[in-house]
Write a structure and sequence with these properties.
mainly alpha; 14 helices
């Protein structure tokens, strides 16, 4: 196991370098961040030259990348064009988005797997058809429609929640936004679990366990569910990074000042240090989440061994 983890960590290095270089090129090679900072008025030549020298924008792109990566390993993600260190924005945004992602992930795991198991065991019945239809509706309707509808009725019409989340983003304020953020993934988790459970329910080892007289609950939880969760865990692991990076729409609707909000502001104002810094941390989260998923395979299926 230890050798496998070390090998996977070493494999992450070229992936991390390649991903971060592509992000850096896409952000810094397209457009002029200094010109975008001043809008239509345009900066005077002296100010523009000073800013380009301060942010190393007057150097070749490959040199900018090396200088930037060198600073990252010392914990310096650069300074936003408004003078605020990017690490300060991260310290405020990432805990908020992490809480939001955990709320969404809880909905996906609890409701998605529960609905998937129930419908998988009752495949073809009315409950199965109803849940499949509802998941199809959730997948088809865009998130901004679901979010604004929930905000209008629950926040404005009925007054059950605050229409906008406070800057502190308390956990109780994130329940509805978390549910909205989780809905599409919840629908996929339900469908994945249902398909996997329905397929494994017909396997020989399940029929053998039932024929031996084992309690139905034990067969479902210890044998059927455990072997059916591998594709679901794969999806959930990749989804953790997606929930944090892809919450731009949900965070905009509910005014949550998390990672999605900061990325939106950074892209809108072409604030390159902010965008690159946040995306690099998200790349790390994706890589570590995938490593964790690979390690969980052996827990779910004892036949899997790592050399």
């Amino acid at each position: 196991m230890g050798r496998y983890v070390i090998r996977r960590l070493l494999q992450m290095i070229p992936v991390f370098i390649g991903a971060t270089f592509l992000i850096f090129v896409m952000v810094y090679a397209l457009g002029d961040p200094v010109a975008a900072l001043f809008g239509d008025r345009g900066p005077d030549p002296a100010t523009a030259a000073a800013l380009r020298a301060e942010f190393n924008l007057d150097k070749p792109l490959w040199q900018q990348y090396l200088l930037y990566m060198g600073k990252i390993f010392t914990g310096d993600f650069g300074t936003a064009f408004n003078g605020q260190p990017v690490t300060e924005l991260m310290e405020r945004a990432f805990p908020i988005s992490l809480r939001l992602a955990l709320v969404a992930l809880t909905f996906e795991i609890v409701l998605g797997i529960l609905l998937g198991v129930v419908t998988g065991l009752r495949r073809g019945r009315s409950l199965d058809t109803t849940v499949l239809l509802l998941t199809l509706v959730v997948i088809a309707v865009p998130t901004f429609v679901l979010g604004t509808t929930a905000q209008f009725f629950l926040g404005v019409e009925f007054g059950w929640i605050d229409p906008a989340v406070s800057p502190d983003a308390r956990l109780d304020e994130l329940i509805v936004p978390g549910l909205i953020l989780a809905l599409v993934s919840l629908a996929y988790v339900t469908r994945l679990t249902r398909t996997s459970v329905a397929e494994n329910a017909r396997a020989d080892y399940i029929r053998t366990a039932v024929a031996k007289g084992l309690p139905r609950g034990r067969v479902t939880v210890r044998h059927l569910l455990r072997n059916s969760l591998i594709p679901v865990v794969t999806y959930l692991g990749a989804d953790l990074g997606t929930l944090m990076a892809g919450a731009i729409v949900t965070e905009r609707i509910f005014n949550i000042q998390g990672v999605g909000y900061q990325l939106y502001q950074g892209i809108l104002r072409q604030n390159s240090p902010t965008v690159v810094g946040f995306v690099i941390v998200l790349v790390l989260i994706f890589l570590l989440a995938n490593l964790l998923v690979d390690l969980l395979y052996a827990v779910l299926d004892p036949r899997i061994r790592y050399a």
